[in-house]
Write a structure and sequence with these properties.
Blueprint (H helix, E strand, L loop, with lengths): L13 E6 L6 H12 L2 E4 H11 L2 H11 L6 H12 L7 E5 L5 H13 L6 E6 L2 H9 L1 E4 L5 E3 L19 E2 L6 H24 L3 E5 L4 H15 L2
This protein binds zinc ion.
Length: about 230
């Protein structure tokens, strides 16, 4: 039986990796997992900023590297992550967002977790239908008067070109909300993520969750996956 979201209890610290293309609702779902399971979402950018601000040894190394205009190495990120995972708020587990990005980083992460007898519980891939995603994003437009959102297919104003709410006829489209841009963002995501997907598939921890439905339905599917993967 799956525990209710409010009462979900993990029997051991969970290490989850959340993978999903732009527009799949990754941020929303990560927040729901944080609330439901007491997990902490760790993104690489936040980790770096916090370590630099705290002036930890790894943070100071990262700061020097960044000030020299160089890229922060995998080793530095791993060291920062090691420090962060040891903090009390991570006791119930973490959701990693944006790390690892490569199989080399994934292997380094496995070694780090092995130091404390841990391993990845699940690498969750939020799966989208590319064509549907393109249609969803590319059809969006917004009222310039009041900011109301519309969509070519899913939400037309009652009078074409006129806002239902404020009557304005100034409709605007974001330059990057077009089929070509959305398509290439998805292609770049798939190209970057494919090696990770097969890496975690090979380890038997890959979980695919359909991310095309309602937010709450996706959250329920994710919750089941996390519950099973951590018990
Ligand atoms: Zn309007």
């Amino acid at each position: 039986m799956i525990a209710d979201m409010d009462t979900a209890v993990l029997t051991r610290p969970a290490v989850l990796i959340l993978l999903g293309p732009p527009g799949a609702g990754k941020g929303t779902q990560a927040r729901k997992l944080e609330q439901g399971f007491g997990l902490v979402q760790l993104s690489t950018g936040d980790l770096l900023r916090a370590a630099v601000a705290a002036g930890t040894p790894a943070g100071l190394t990262a700061k020097a590297v960044m000030e020299a205009g160089e890229l922060v190495s995998d080793e530095i990120v791993i060291n920062i992550l090691r420090d962060r995972l040891a903090e009390p708020d991570c006791a119930k587990g973490v959701i990693l967002d944006g790390f690892p990005r490569t199989t080399v980083q994934a292997e380094a992460l496995d070694r780090l977790l092995a130091e404390s007898g841990q391993q990845i519980n699940a690498a969750v891939s939020l799966e989208v239908d590319d064509a549907a995603m393109v249609a969803r994003v590319a059809g969006r437009y917004t009222c310039g008067g009041c900011g109301e959102g519309y969509h070519d297919q899913f939400k037309q104003p009652r009078v074409a070109g006129t806002c239902d709410r404020c009557g304005s006829t100034e409709m605007t489209r974001r330059a990057d909300d077009n089929a070509e841009t959305v398509g290439s963002r998805l292609a770049a995501y798939h190209a970057q993520t494919a090696p990770l997907i097969s890496y975690y598939d090979g380890k038997g921890v890959l979980q695919r969750v359909d991310a095309m439905g309602e937010i709450d339905h996706i959250a329920t599917s994710l919750q089941k996956v996390v519950s099973v993967a951590t018990t």
